Prior knowledge:
Layout: E1 3-8, E2 24-28, E3 43-47, H1 50-66, E4 73-79, H2 83-92, E5 95-97, E6 103-105, H3 111-120, H4 123-130, E7 133-139, E8 145-149, H5 162-169, H6 171-183, H7 192-205, H8 210-222, H9 231-238, H10 245-248, H11 254-263
Antiparallel strand pairs: 1-3, 1-4, 2-3, 4-7, 5-6, 7-8
Helix pairs in contact: 6-7, 6-8, 7-8
Amino acid sequence: MTATYMVVEPSNGDLDMRPAPNAYEIGELVPTERPDLEGVAPVLYRLEHVERQLAHVQQLAIGHWYDGRPPVVCCIFETEAATDEVREHLASSLLLDKPGGGSGVFRYYDPRVYSHLRWILESSQMAALMGPVTRWSYPDETGSWQEARFDVVGHEKLTVTSEQYRQIARIALVRGALEPLRAAGIGIPQDLPRLLDRQLHKAERYGLTVEDQIPFALHGVLVAPNFDRHPKVQAVLSRSQETSYAEAIDQWSDEDWQRIKQESAQYPLD
């Protein structure tokens, strides 16, 4: 029998189910290996009156999005598995093994993270992450509910490559780079997050500070993907330890950037 659940982030606010019936609280998703996460972990709820609760929960999440608030309702999902099995799998998935050893807390359930996992992970990896879940719905970064369906796999633990782990770690920066584009009303193509991540990785290799990585990445997608090969940009990058990238290019005109864009066509792509 299919049951419907949701994951809630209490640290982002109170869950107000009125006027719908209250959801049944299952409990925190605390990994066995990290009992110290008790009190700060997300909470699993079961929707026992789906026909009266589902629309309210979805509207609640979208309302928070329009208010600019972090998500309280992170996702809604369906499964045919027993509650204990679901809770154990989702809790254990909060720890992601690092390719070099050890593990880190993995906020995969947060829609601001989950929406990017679709371009980072392979379909088989997403299925392993979801485990007993057959359908997962989440509010995306445009305020719309999205849905993903999965074939149930065995108790397989998600493993990622070193590059995928670094991409997951860069999600916050990718989101930071997308914010000014959305604020300016610029449409976000489906592959843009991946392109921004590629430029952010390049910025890391240049040794740019976190503050400089976002403007660098934006120039990489708005000017030219290989704009950094231009001598004018290379001169700035070579002095980035003395003068920040953002400060060095602050006085450049639109004509400067247009010239860099045009002349970058002669340089090979990475």
